[in-house]
């Protein structure tokens, strides 16, 4: 079975602060894929990143960065210099054979960036 | 239109009504999905279609009936719903029904059952 845990249900920061969202996963698969999605108030889930289990390189995309630590089964997401437009719910997801190739989503973390 | 579109964006229906949700993807994908997102609950996968064939039904009540006439369109037919069915219904598509492919989501239909 697969499981994704996002322990932080809500994080509130002031604009320009950095914010890190935690994601811990469980899977029996040796090959799996991890994803982050953003859900703004409009409702649409926006794909942010996909990471393969065999690629532990961290990634940076603009103000976003991801830290994949296979040893601790974590795939954390950091927003640097947060902006009001970053306010949204962020979901971590896991895909692997153990769950029949479907994505397992975490419960989401709501980020509120105040001006 | 680009990406994944869903209509209507908002729907209010009585328990005895029959309505349909529509999803269309313009990405050339071969797999489509229906998810239900209720308040304070994780995203729940309802149905998976791959190449127009339903390959997954996660114990969804029969009052929800999906239809996939072609790889670009997906419908969710609703009848005799319950108030607890009120939720955001999200459609997604991916290149294939495979764990490695990211899913692209539509904006969702906010459904309220009265």
What does this protein structure show overall?
The complex is a heterodimer of chains A (115) and B (114). Chain A is mostly beta strands and 115 residues long. Chain A contains no helices and 12 strands. Chain A has strands at 3-5, 10-14, 19-21, 24-26, 32-39, 46-52, 59-61, 64-69, 74-79, 88-96, 103-105, 109-114. In chain A, the strands form 3 sheets. In chain A, strands 2, 5, 6, 10, 11 and 12 form a 6-stranded mixed sheet that branches. The model of chain A has no long low-confidence stretch (mean pLDDT 92). With 114 residues, chain B is an all-beta fold. In chain B, 0% of the residues lie in helices and 56% in strands. Chain B contains no helices and 11 strands. In chain B, the strands form 2 sheets. In chain B, strands 2, 4, 5, 6, 9, 10 and 11 form a 7-stranded mixed sheet that branches. In chain B, strands 1-3-8-7 form a 4-stranded antiparallel sheet, with no helix packed on it. In chain B, strand 5 (44-50) and strand 6 (53-57) form a beta hairpin. The model of chain B has no long low-confidence stretch (mean pLDDT 90). The chains are: A mainly beta (115), B mainly beta (114).
């Amino acid at each position: 079975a697969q499981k994704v845990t996002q322990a932080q249900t809500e994080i509130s920061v002031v604009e320009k602060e950095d914010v890190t969202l935690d994601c811990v996963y469980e899977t029996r698969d040796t090959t799996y894929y991890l994803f982050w999605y953003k859900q703004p108030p409009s409702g649409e889930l926006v794909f942010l990143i996909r990471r393969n289990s065999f690629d532990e390189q961290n990634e940076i995309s603009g103000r976003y960065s991801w830290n994949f630590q296979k040893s601790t089964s974590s795939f954390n997401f950091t927003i640097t210099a947060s902006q009001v437009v970053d306010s949204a719910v962020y979901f971590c997801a896991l895909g692997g054979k153990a769950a029949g190739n479907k994505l397992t989503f975490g419960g989401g973390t709501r980020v509120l960036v105040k001006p | 239109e680009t990406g994944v579109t869903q209509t209507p964006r908002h729907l209010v229906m009585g328990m005895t009504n029959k309505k349909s949700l529509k999803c269309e993807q313009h990405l050339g994908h071969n797999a489509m999905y229906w998810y239900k997102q209720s308040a304070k609950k994780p995203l729940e996968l309802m149905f998976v279609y791959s190449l127009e064939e339903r390959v997954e039904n996660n114990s969804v009540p029969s009052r929800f009936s999906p239809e996939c006439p072609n790889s670009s369109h997906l419908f969710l037919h609703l009848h005799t719903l319950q108030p607890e069915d009120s939720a955001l219904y999200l459609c997604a598509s991916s290149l294939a029904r495979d764990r490695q492919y990211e899913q692209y989501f539509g904006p969702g239909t906010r459904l309220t059952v009265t």
